[in-house]
Amino acid sequence: MNDSTPAHGPGLIFDTHLEHFDHDVIEASHTLPILVDFWADWCPPCRALTPVLERVVAHHAGKLHMAKVEVDEGANMKLAGRYALRGFPTVLLFVKGEIVGRFSSAHPENWVREFIAEHTDIE
Questions:
Q1: Catalytic: 110?
Q2: For residue 99, what is the domain's CATH number?
Q3: DSSP state of 41
Q4: Percent of the chain, pLDDT > 90?
């Protein structure tokens, strides 16, 4: 686990893995909403969505964090199975330990901001 993961000190955007997911995402979402980006290196829409999500998280200045889960890494596919993900990228939004929203595929920044506003008290 790298220094930006919540177990070592919160960062706005951090990588997480199967073994730390419950702590880094489920537990942490009781404090702040957590967007979880399930992505793959071979996926062009994933590469298109990542900078959009990063800008949105930066725009919300600490009111929202983002966990990135690379599904190319074997054990992380178990997380994709746990949440019945069918394609990538898929983004889940966790609030208070629960999934409150999800979307798949790349979307423009305004759409992502509206998605977050619809499911949280963040505007």
A1: no
A2: 3.40.30.10
A3: T
A4: 83
